[in-house]
Write a structure and sequence with these properties.
single chain; alpha+beta; Rossmann fold; SH3 type barrels; Elongation Factor Tu (Ef-tu), domain 3; 7 helices; 16 strands
Length: 362
C-alpha cells in the first residue's frame, strides 16, 4: 500500500468485494528529510512524490477504514544499496538509470514477497496496471499489457521472475483509471481524487544533479572530476563541460554551446569524459545492445525473433528483430531508425500484448 488511489483501491477490492484475508504493507524506503540542509536541497521535500510520510499516513488510514492489519516494513538499507547507489553510479558513468525498475526488481517484488511469505501470505497484490496469467501450453506465467494502455506499467516490470509472477495479483489489469477512481468512491475512500505521484521518490526537489552532489558529500566521498570536452559529431571541440553526470542522450537544454540550429547530446564517453553533440538526425540509430536479460514468455532466446521493442516508458514499441549474442546479451535491429537510444535505460520486448522479456541498454 503506497498511499495512492491505485493500491488503496486494490486493498478495498480484495477485502470487500472478494472477501480475501488482506494485510496492508507499506515499504519505508527513504528518509525524505535525510539530505535537508545540503546545498540546493530544500528543507521541505517537494510534493507529488511517492512513498512520502503523507502517503504512509494515507495508507494507514485506508487500512483502518477497511479493517485490515497494517504494517510499515523498513527497507531503507536495501533501497539505498540496490536503488540509490546504482542511480548515482550510473549517472557518474555517463548512463541514465531507471530507479523505478530497480525498485520493482529488488524491493517490491523481491523483499516484499519474502516479507509476505514470512507472515503466512500466499501472494502479494499491487496497484500496478498489468496483467499476469498462466499459460498451460507453454507452462509459463505471462505478463501482459493492461486494459488501460495509457497507464501501462509493464515496461517497469520486465524483471519479474516466474516465481514472482506466480505469487502476484494485479487486480487493476482489466480496469481503466476512471474505473479505479469510481471503485474508490464506491468504497468511500477519501483519497479517490488524489493525484498520481510523478517524481522520483528520493529526489527532494526533482533535481537529480543536486541530489548526487549532496549524497556524495553526505557519504564523505569527493565529487569525482568527470569534466571534459564537448565536441561536434565530426570531433571538433566546441567547449568544455563540468561533468558527464549533467547530461543524457537526447538532451537539448543546458549545453552551453551557441548554435544557429538546435544541438542535442548524441554520445557520452565515460572513459574520456567527452560529450558529443549533433543535430536531431544524429540521434537516430537502427540498432541497440542490451544485457542482463530477463525472459518471461520464453525460457530463453534461442535465435532471431520478431518483436516490438520499447526503449523508454513513453516510447511507442517499434518493430525489431532481436538475436542472441555472447554472455546473455542481445542485439536488436529496428525496422526504422529510433531516436535517442539511451544507455542505462531498459528495453522491453513485446509479442502483441505479451512481454517477451527485457534488459538494460549499454
Amino acid at each position: 500500500m503506497s498511499g495512492g488511489v491505485d493500491s488503496s483501491t486494490v486493498a478495498a477490492i480484495l477485502a470487500r468485494d472478494r472477501g480475501d484475508t488482506v494485510i496492508g504493507l507499506t515499504l519505508q524506503l527513504w528518509n525524505q528529510n535525510r539530505l535537508a540542509g545540503h546545498p540546493g536541497i530544500p528543507d521541505t521535500p517537494k510534493a507529488g512524490r511517492c512513498c512520502s510520510l503523507d502517503d504512509v499516513y494515507d495508507a494507514r488510514r485506508v487500512a483502518v477504514q477497511l479493517g485490515i492489519p497494517y504494517y510499515v516494513v523498513n527497507q531503507e538499507d536495501r533501497f539505498e544499496q540496490d536503488v540509490v547507489r546504482p542511480f548515482v553510479e550510473e549517472y557518474l558513468a555517463g548512463r541514465t538509470p531507471i530507479p523505478c525498475s530497480l525498485c520493482n526488481n529488488h524491493l517490491k517484488f523481491d523483499q516484499l514477497l519474502k516479507t509476505a511469505r514470512s507472515i503466512g501470505a500466499d501472494s502479494i497484490a499491487t496497484g500496478h496496471y498489468a496483467v499476469n496469467e498462466f499459460d498451460p501450453v507453454r507452462g509459463r506465467w505471462l505478463l501482459k499489457r493492461p486494459a488501460d494502455l495509457a497507464k501501462d506499467q509493464t515496461y517497469f516490470l520486465f524483471g519479474l521472475t516466474q516465481d514472482q509472477l506466480a505469487h502476484t495479483l494485479f487486480p487493476l489489469g482489466h480496469m481503466t483509471k476512471p474505473e479505479v477512481r469510481e471503485a474508490a468512491r464506491r468504497h468511500g475512500l477519501r483519497l479517490a481524487e488524489k493525484p498520481d505521484s510523478q517524481e522520483i521518490c528520493f529526489i527532494p526537489n526533482g533535481d537529480y544533479k543536486q541530489f548526487i552532489a549532496a549524497y556524495l558529500t553526505e557519504q564523505g566521498r569527493p565529487i569525482p572530476d568527470t569534466a571534459g570536452e564537448m565536441v561536434s559529431a565530426d570531433g571538433k571541440v566546441l567547449s568544455h563541460h563540468d561533468g558527464i553526470e549533467n547530461f543524457t542522450i537526447g538532451q537539448r537544454k543546458g549545453l552551453g554551446v551557441p548554435s544557429p540550429s538546435p544541438l542535442y547530446v548524441i554520445h557520452i564517453d565515460p572513459a574520456s569524459h567527452r560529450v558529443t553533440v549533433g543535430d536531431d538526425a544524429d540521434l537516430t540509430t537502427r540498432t541497440l545492445r542490451a544485457r542482463q536479460l530477463n525472459w518471461i514468455s520464453v525460457p530463453s532466446l534461442a535465435g532471431p525473433m520478431r518483436v516490438r521493442a520499447k526503449i523508454r516508458h513513453r516510447h511507442e514499441p517499434a518493430w525489431a528483430t532481436i538475436e542472441p549474442v555472447e554472455d546473455n546479451k542481445v542485439l536488436a535491429t529496428f525496422d526504422e531508425p529510433q531516436r535517442a537510444v539511451t544507455p542505462g535505460q531498459s528495453v522491453v520486448f513485446y509479442d502483441g500484448d505479451e512481454v517477451v522479456g527485457g534488459g538494460w541498454i549499454y
